[in-house]
Amino acid sequence: MLNIAVLVSGGGSNLQAIIDAVACGELPVRIALVLSDRRGAYALERARQHGIPTAVVRPRDYADRPAFDDAVAEILAEHQVELVCLAGFMRLFQADFMRRYAGRVINIHPALLPAFPGLHVQREALEHGVKVSGCTVHFADEGTDTGPIIVQRAVPVLEDDTVETLSARILEQEHLAYVEAIRLYAAGRLRICGRRVRVLPPAPPAGLANCPTEGPTD
Ligand code: GRF
After folding, report:
1. 134 lines ligand 1 (CB under 6 A)
2. 6 C-beta closer than 6 A to ligand 1
3. CA–CA dist 31, 41 (Å, integer)
4. Which of 14, 54, 116, 211 is a Cys-bridge partner for 111, taking CB atoms 3.0 to 4.6 Å apart?
5. In the predicted model, what is the mean pLDDT of residues 122-143?
6. How high is the mean pLDDT of the chain?
């Protein structure tokens, strides 16, 4: 089973969606580690409640960013993590880390990329006057919210929306999108082709996989 780590900085509602999907058998992965850059992140509490190993790696405890990245990489390796899921993790990794984990780090973003990368994007979407927003799960690269897109889900922007109501509507879809993206990855159904992520069809049921095709008869 695929070993994943979920990296968090805050409340961890996306983490909770992943935990719930694993618990009810919808998502065949093992959450090997929840790692936070902040001691107080409530997401850590959610992990502990479910008996999931946790780690806190704080940038202030390291001389520079490469040293912080190395410390994270070391802990991920100790837990034999195969896929890193950024879920509200407020740090960017540098080039060395991203090369080491190329194609094995995914992120969730509360807007329809490439529109509105970065922070405070629900406010930006409202202020810009878009009629549709949503969320994006994408492979992470060295940029901010720039990697190839795996799954997107759209939500309408309503006349009386505030940042809070729009964020809540997007967050509901984030929980579905993240579980879906991890499920596709775990099933080996994602191929990165340049900027595009191809989603392969599901594998046929085991019993049918090796059926011989009938040759011509004469
Ligand atoms: C989500 O909106 C996610 O898209 C963004 O940070 C927020 C994290 O929320 N990157 P939570 O901690 O999963 O509740």
Report:
1. no
2. no
3. 17
4. 116
5. 97
6. 95
